[in-house]
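Q: What residues go here?
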């Protein structure tokens, strides 16, 4: 049986730092070299 959670379970704020370029493809390539497969939501 699950415990009853007390209080608000939603985050109080969202922080997204500005960026000009993403290195996601390099991260995906490095991860997949470890013989693992990235999830679809991680790739898109």
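A:
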């Amino acid at each position: 049986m699950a415990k009853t959670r007390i209080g608000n379970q939603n985050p109080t704020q969202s922080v997204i730092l500005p960026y000009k370029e993403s290195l996601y493809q390099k991260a995906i390539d490095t991860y997949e070299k470890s013989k693992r497969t990235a999830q679809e939501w991680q790739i898109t």
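A: Context that may help when evaluating the design: The longest helix spans residues 24-32. DSSP finds two helices and no strands in the chain.
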